[in-house]
Amino acid sequence: MKNEIYEKIRESGGRMTKIKKALIDVFLESGCLVDMETIEKKLKKRNLKPEKSTIFRELNALCDKQIIIKNSISGKSFYEIPCSHHHHLVCVYCGKIESVEMKNIFKSFEKKLSKSKNFLITNHVLDFFGYCEKCRDKQKL
Question: I need a surface site. Which of 32, 47, 77, 135 has the fewest CB within 10 A?
Fold first, then answer.
């Protein structure tokens, strides 16, 4: 997968910088939803300490080329490689986020909506908010 990502970046005129390669490694290792704090920690472990502005610039370039996608959950930005379409369960107490697969459940709805509103839908985001098992027990819900 890494080589396919590199090729897509090169084909779109992008350069493969040391930071960009490290970011791609971070996303491939982390999987779903990586926040800026985690990105910085993982880059630091690789002995890379770029300025935040450099990281944001590289993240924006990767988003523009649709290598990664940006999600905002509860006002916080997360990034991920869009490998398989999935949704998230978000605990409003501890912030735990869990990936949830929902195969093709919205395909027909998207088609109807797209046609009825004459709108080209390229993606959608659906997140479920509530309490994880540990926090539900703490809250006695």
Answer: 47
Write the burial class of residue 67 (CB in 10 Å: 0-12 exposed, 13-18 middle, 19+ buried).
Answer: buried
Please state the φ and ψ torsions of residue 98, each to the nearest 5 degrees.
-125, 135
| Cross-strand pairs, 129 | 90
99-141 pLDDT tens trace: 888 777 788 888 999 999 999 988 788 888 999 999 988 877 6
The pLDDT, as a whole number, for residue 141 is 66
Position of tokens 């493969």? 16
With both helix axes pointing from N to C terminus, report the angle between 18-30 and 52-64 in degrees, rounded to the nearest 10: 70
Note the helical H segments in the chain. Answer: 2-11, 18-30, 36-45, 52-64, 107-117, 133-139
pLDDT of residue 137: 83
